[in-house]
Structure formats: C-alpha cells, structure tokens
Amino acid sequence: MKSQAVSAKDKVSDEAIYWVSKLHGGDLNLEDKLAFSEWLNRSHQHLQAFDELNATWAALGNAKFLPEIQYEIRSLNAVPVKKCNRRVALHSLQAACFGLLMFGAYSYYTKMVPGGSRPAAFDVAVSQNRYATTAGEDRVVELRDGSRIHLNTRSSVEVRYSGVARQVDLLNGEAHFEVMPDKSRPFVVKVARTRVTA
C-alpha cells in the first residue's frame, strides 16, 4: 500500500518536472498549453508539485553563485597553456634514446672474462677439447700454447682457448698444471665454484 502511494507521488513529481522544464524551455505550442492546463486542474497534488518546482526553478535562475562560477570558468580558460617547443622535445627524445642505447651497450660489454678485463662478448672459444683418464691411467696433455696438464686416474678436464683467455674446467678427479705465461691471455682453472688464475 505504501509503495503504491510512493510511486504515485514519484509519478506526480516526474510529471511536474516535465512541465516546469517544458514551460521554461520556451517551445510550448497550443496543444501543449491545453495538456498542461488539463494536468494542472486534474489534482491538487499536481498544482502543489508544480508550484514547488517552479519556485525552485526561479530561485536557481536568480542565484548569485552562478556569475561567480562563470567567472571562475572564464579565468580557468584565460590561463596560458605553455606549448612545448618541438625542437627541444626532439632533442630531449634523442638524448634519452642515446642514453638508453649507451646503458644497454655498457651492460652488455661489462660481463667480464674470468680473471681478465675484456668483455665476454669477445670471449668466443677458438678451440674446445675434452681430455679424460680411466681407472689406473695417468696422462700428460700438452696444450698448443706449451702449457701441460697432468691428469691423475679417473680425471677429466675441458679446455677452452680463445683470443682473450685460456680456461680449463676440472670436471672430476685430480690434475696438476704447468702453465706457460701469457699476460694477454690469462690461464683460468675452474673447479666447482672456485676459480684460480695463473
């Protein structure tokens, strides 16, 4: 019962809003005037709702805050917008790209060769060999630079030579090294997580 009364009141309010906006909109023809007169005379509630909304409309029309708001809007539009100089923007973009490129190149080339100071990018293995001994076997391996590896029984090594380094990985077992000096190419022996440079 209450919901019907509320919905009837809402309907009257909605109709009053429609008529107030239509009357103040200025596009009222003869047919509209007759329909409005009929609606207004149909109920005292219609007249009351229309009078309340019409008074509110008039109060809003005479409101003193509207000119202040319009002034604020005009002053916001008057603030000069700084335009970006295209040449400066282009140079800034180029500098940022160059800096990024240099950072990438630096990051790539600073991966150092173990025991050396040259970038890992130049550490391409020229030769790679694996040497091993079986149970009860001892072996002496002479490398191409004159260095020697003495392998004990059940031992294996992997030898990688490049233009910047000589690296030997002791995979298992025991080995003794006689290293020919070469300052331009350090001799690095890796055992598990340990590195020894000669």
Structure commentary:
- The chain is α+β, with helices and mostly antiparallel strands.
- It has three domains: about 1-75, no CATH class; about 80-110; about 125-195, Sandwich (Jelly Rolls), CATH 2.60.120.1440.
- It contains five helices and eight strands; from the N terminus they run H-H-H-H-H-E-E-E-E-E-E-E-E.
- The chain has helices at about 1-25, 30-40, 45-60, 65-80, 85-110, and strands at about 125-130, 140, 150, 155-160, 165-170, 175-180, 185-190, 195.
- The strands form two sheets. Strands 1-4-5-7-8 form a five-stranded mixed β-sheet, with no helix packed on it.
- The longest helix has 24 residues, at about 1-25.
- It is rod-shaped and about 120 Å long.
- It starts with a helix and ends with a strand.
- The relative contact order is 0.07.
- Residues about 110-120 have low confidence and may be disordered.
